[in-house]
Prior knowledge:
Elements: H1 3-39, H2 45-74, H3 77-95
Helix pairs in contact: 1-2, 2-3
Amino acid sequence: MTDEAAIERLEVSLGRLLRAGIMSAAVLMTAGLVLWMANGPQTLATPSITTGVIILMITPLARVIASLIVYARMRDWFFLATTVAVFVVLVAAWLLKG
C-alpha cells in the first residue's frame, strides 16, 4: 500500500472516529438535558450529561492515539514525533488542570 493510500484511509478513519465521538456526546448530553428539564437534576440527567462531556473531551485524545498507531505502522518518523509531542501536550494539560 502506498503512503498516499494509507493517509487517505487514516483521514477516513479519523473522520469516522471524530463523528462517532461528537454524535455520542451530543446524544448523551441532549438526553441528559431533556431528563433534567422533565424531572429535575436528581434523575439520570447528571450522569448522562457528565458522560457526554467526558466523551467529548476524550475524542481528540482518541484521534491522536489513532494517528500515533498509523504513523508508527507507516514508519513516518516525522509525523510520529509530531503526534507524540501533541499527545504529551494534551496529557500534560489534562494533568495540570487541577
